[in-house]
Amino acid sequence: MEAMPLRSVELLESRAALDAFLAASELEPVLLFKHSRTCGSSVEALDEVQAYVERDDRALRVGMVVVQSHRDLSTDVSQRFAVRHETPQVLLVRGGEVAWHASHFRVRGATIAAAIETALARPA
Fold this sequence. Notes:
The relative contact order is 0.21. Helices cover 40% and strands 22% of the residues. By secondary structure, it is an alpha/beta fold. It has one domain: Glutaredoxin (3-Layer(aba) Sandwich), CATH 3.40.30.
């Protein structure tokens, strides 16, 4: 049996990349992580997101915006979805709308998995 390649977190570094990533939510949910390299809780949250990605068998796309280098993209996400900017922050986007979001200590693999299960159980 051939090993499945590990999925990775996509680094979103341009408006075009962010737009394409979010447009994909029309077909399937996507998970967007807003990360701060200077925040200890964000580093821990990134570990949780990466651990989730490595153990989940869904083909869910996961993207990341690094706030220090792409504050404009982070601001765009906040304005687009009317969700207050925080880091760390994770948003589950389905059909172009935020189905769930969490920040700070609530960014955990288990909470991400539960939110995805709930979102996928609902009709699109």
